[in-house]
Write a structure and sequence with these properties.
- By secondary structure, the protein is an alpha/beta fold.
- Helix content is about 40%, strand content about 15%.
- It contains 5 helices and 5 strands, in the order H-E-E-H-E-H-E-H-E-H.
- The chain has a 3-stranded parallel sheet, sandwiched between helices. A two-stranded parallel sheet has the order 1-2.
- The protein is globular.
């Protein structure tokens, strides 16, 4: 999350850092203007989804995958309405997407529509356009206009 907070700070804007208390490795990043500490992952997740205009999933590890699939499940089940989900870095996420199509979809564990609940791009301007489009739509079941494969 540091990238978003740093970008906001460098542009002169405000940002919120939602930090989780862990026994090691996790400290609040210095770029967040407003910092909130959480003991439990689910509380942090509720807050970050509740106030978000979009979710941009940057290359990351297990925590990133956990958050991606949680937000994707919330969108798929209609628990959140129009929140755009964008995976940034088509090459990085390509193996996961291949597995989702070749294993999950092929075995009927997900539907083809589930793969349309998020976009994949390497273009920063496209990320901004997707988020703006999602924020301006009034259709709670609106899907992204395209999904880069």
């Amino acid at each position: 999350m540091e990238a978003a907070n740093r970008g906001a700070a460098e542009a002169g804007g405000d940002s919120v850092g939602l930090n989780i208390e862990l026994p090691c490795e996790q400290v609040a990043n210095p770029y967040a203007n407003h910092k909130m500490e959480f003991r439990y992952f689910f509380c942090r997740r509720v807050m970050f989804v509740k106030e978000s205009s979009g979710v941009v999933v940057m290359p990351g590890g297990i925590g990133t995958l956990d958050e991606f699939f949680e937000v994707l499940t919330l969108k798929q089940t209609g628990k959140i309405e129009k929140l755009p989900i964008i995976m940034f870095g088509a090459n990085y996420w390509g193996g996961l997407l291949d597995w989702m199509r070749g294993t999950l979809l092929a075995r009927g564990a997900i539907s083809p529509e589930d793969l349309e609940l998020f976009d994949v791009t390497d273009d920063i301007e496209e990320v901004v356009a997707i988020i703006k489009r999602g924020a301006n739509t009034h259709d709670p079941h609106a899907k992204p206009s395209r999904n880069v494969r």
